[in-house]
Amino acid sequence: AQKVTQAQTEISVVEKEDVTLDCVYETRDTTYYLFWYKQPPSGELVFLIRRKSFDEQNEISGRYSWNFQKSTSSFNFTITASQVVDSAVYFCALSEAEDNAGNMLTFGGGTRLMVIP
Amino acid sequence: DAGVIQSPRHEVTEMGQEVTLRCKPISGHDYLFWYRQTMMRGLELLIYFNNNVPIDDSGMPEDRFSAKMPNASFSTLKIQPSEPRDSAVYFCASSSQPTGHNQPQHFGDGTRLSIL
Predict the structure, then answer these.
(1) CB-CB neighbors (< 8 A) of B100 in chain A
(2) Which of A69, A70, A71, A75 lies closest to A49 in space, CA to CA?
(3) A17-44: per-residue pLDDT in tens?
(4) Which residues of B are less than 8 Å from A95 in CB distance?
């Protein structure tokens, strides 16, 4: 069974600080996909990134970066120089790539990030 | 490009009434998903369709819930009769390929449902 754990339920940082959101996952599959979604106060879910299990390269997109480590089953998300607009709930999700199971997105409980001006 | 469109954005109704939530997926997407988000249970997949056919409805909480997809551009999630515990945000999402084949799901803005 697949499982995603986001141990940090809530984080507060002061603007311009760096912050890392943790995500730990469990799966028995060798092929799987990991995702991050952002849910701002307006409520919509915004896709941020997708990473395949075979691709352990870290990725950077502007102030966002992701650190994927299979050895620790983690897919952490770092925001550099945080801004008030980064305040949102961030969800990590996992999809196993086997037939119908490949369509099941299992979400973590989310981390609420508050960036204080 | 238009994203996933859900209606209504908010719905408030009394217990026992029938509720119908609507979703228009992104054009060309042949996978459609319905999720429910609550404080207690987080984001849960209720049901998903492929090419208008329901594939997995194991997440549908009980017989009061039903979902249909009469064509590629429209789906409904119906609750009859509604109960206060059905209060939640309901999201519709679509994707162009199976999620496990490297395509993300794109979500609508959600319908915030309140059952009094």
Answers:
(1) 31-33, 95-98, 101-103
(2) A75
(3) 999 999 999 998 888 889 999 999 999 9
(4) 99-100
Average pLDDT over residues B85-100: 87
* B112 close to A (CB below 8 A): yes
B70 close to A (CB below 8 A): no
pLDDT of residue A114: 97
Contact between B48 and A101 using a beta-carbon 8 Å cutoff: no
Say whether B55 and A44 touch across the interface (CB within 8 A).
no
B81: preceding bond cis by omega (within 30 degrees): yes
The b/e string for A24-54 (b: 16+ C-beta within 10 A; e otherwise) is: bbebebeebbbbbbbbeeeebbebbbbbebe
Strands (E), A1-117: 3-5, 10-14, 19-21, 24-26, 32-39, 46-52, 59-61, 64-69, 74-79, 88-96, 106-107, 111-116
- By Cβ distance, the residue of A43, A50, A107 closest to B110 is A43
CB neighbours (10 Å) of residue B58? Answer: 8
Note the pLDDT tens digit of each residue in B36-61. 999 999 999 999 999 999 998 989 98
**β-strand B10-13 against B111-115: which pairing, if any?**
parallel
Given CB atoms, is B100 within the 8 Å cutoff of chain A? yes
Q: Which of B90, B103, B105, B111 to mutate to test the interface with A (most CBs of A within 10 A)?
A: B105
Q: How far, CA to CA in Å, does B10 sit from each of A40, A70, A109, B114?
A: 17, 41, 23, 8
